[in-house]
């Protein structure tokens, strides 16, 4: 996998897919879990979005590891990498539980009345954890990238009006 694309780190580009798709999966999972009509109509779409988000995570972590190997190691980078490695577990769990919830929603057997509430609770919990983890990862990545940057007042350049 290339580390840079047109001079930009691939990780910086790929991570945007994760930053968009994981929260979208979280919202979709919550809607599907808490609204039975949406579960019947859009459940498989929510499962699909969650699957795509899950596939993007290893690409982001792999490209991040490639980039990390080219940077001076810092504690901030180590923390960011550790948090990033944990996200796949939560989103994969969300995918499995959400898939089971949507599939059971198509069944009309007695055990679904027992399992459905359990799966709803697990879906909500994993969606919440996934959302929090994405925020934590993004915050740690921003701190790792920008912690040493010093801002100054806007400077006038020759030719500027």
Automatic annotation (TrEMBL):
**InterPro entries xref list:** DUF2231_TM
Q: Per the database record, which ranges form the DUF2231 domain?
A: 7-147
Alphabetized UniProt keyword annotations? Membrane, Transmembrane, Transmembrane helix
Q: Where are the transmembrane segments?
A: 12-35, 42-61, 87-105, 114-135
Any Pfam family hit: DUF2231
Top-rank taxon: Bacteria
Protein name, please? Answer: DUF2231 domain-containing protein
- Origin species, per record, is Amycolatopsis acidicola
Source organism lineage?
A: Bacteria, Bacillati, Actinomycetota, Actinomycetes, Pseudonocardiales
């Amino acid at each position: 996998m290339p580390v840079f694309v047109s001079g930009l780190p691939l990780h910086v580009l790929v991570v945007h897919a994760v930053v968009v798709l994981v929260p979208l999966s979280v919202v979709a999972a919550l809607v599907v879990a808490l609204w039975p009509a949406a579960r019947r109509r859009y459940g498989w779409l929510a499962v699909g979005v969650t699957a795509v988000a899950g596939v993007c995570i290893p690409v982001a972590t792999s490209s991040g590891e490639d980039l990390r190997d080219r940077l001076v190691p810092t504690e901030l980078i180590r923390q960011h990498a550790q948090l990033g490695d944990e996200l796949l577990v939560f989103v994969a769990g969300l995918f499995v539980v959400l898939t089971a919830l949507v599939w059971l929603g198509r069944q009309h057997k007695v055990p679904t009345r027992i399992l459905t509430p359990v799966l709803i609770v697990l879906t909500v919990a994993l969606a919440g954890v996934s959302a929090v983890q994405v925020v934590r990862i993004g915050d740690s990545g921003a701190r790792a990238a920008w912690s040493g940057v010093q801002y100054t007042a806007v400077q006038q350049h020759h030719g500027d009006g």
